[in-house]
């Protein structure tokens, strides 16, 4: 029973956040099986990322800057970007800008969820520590995914400068992820003083990206099914 409770606490934040971002798609929701597939792939890349990170740590040392921006953020965001670009970018289901956010969030949250499960199983985790991880690493990965997906969506549907947006889809989440990890590595005592405003800003910025991506949907002018039903029942 204890193990089941811990696993539930480890998995629930990622599922809840994924549902939140999925339901934010206002015009053309993605197939559930596609979103679930990207979530699972995000979980599967945890092991190869861990191997690469271990090798880089042995080679480059444990400098906080190197660990934060190269070993942690660099490898993780590069692998997520690789998956999105090669499996989703040219997929027929990627047919509006917001889809990039949904799929990037799915990959990121799959990664964060399995990482959370391993944390619960391998370390002496408590419900308090899992709650803290839900508020910080899990939601952090989700927000980095939102930024990545937003710019991938811009690149997909831009009439020009798609290469610039593709670069931004990797470099911008890399920067914020690196800053996130650098705070945790360097500011041992007062990290909350920096982390709280950082997370508040990322949530604010993520909300803006979600709204802008939805506003660019080519399906905005097409009435949704619920709107059609309302029109039919109005006198």
Concise account of the structure shown:
The protein has helices at residues 2-23, 32-44, 46-60, 64-87, 98-122, 127-157, 162-186, 191-215, 225-233. The protein has 235 residues and is mainly alpha-helical.
Number of helices: 9
**Assembly context of the chains:** single chain
How many discrete structural domains? Answer: 1
* SSE pattern: HHHHHHHHH
Proportion of helical residues: over 70%
- Shape category: globular
CA-CA gap between termini: 55 Å
Radius of gyration based on Cα positions: 19 Å
What is the number of strand segments? 0
Q: Which whole number gives the mean pLDDT?
A: 87
Percentage of residues in strands: under 5%
What does this structure look like?
The chain crosses the membrane at residues 6-23, 35-53, 100-122, 134-153, 190-208. It is an enzyme of class 3 (hydrolase). Involved in the degradation of specific anti-sigma factors. Belongs to the protease PrsW family. By secondary structure, the chain is mostly helical. It has one domain. Helix content is 80%, strand content 0%. It has nine helices and no strands. It has helices at residues 2-23, 32-44, 46-60, 64-87, 98-122, 127-157, 162-186, 191-215, 225-233. α6 (127-157) packs parallel to α8. The radius of gyration is 19 Å and the shape is globular. Residues 228-232 have low confidence and may be disordered.
Write the SSE topology.
Layout: H1 2-23, H2 32-44, H3 46-60, H4 64-87, H5 98-122, H6 127-157, H7 162-186, H8 191-215, H9 225-233
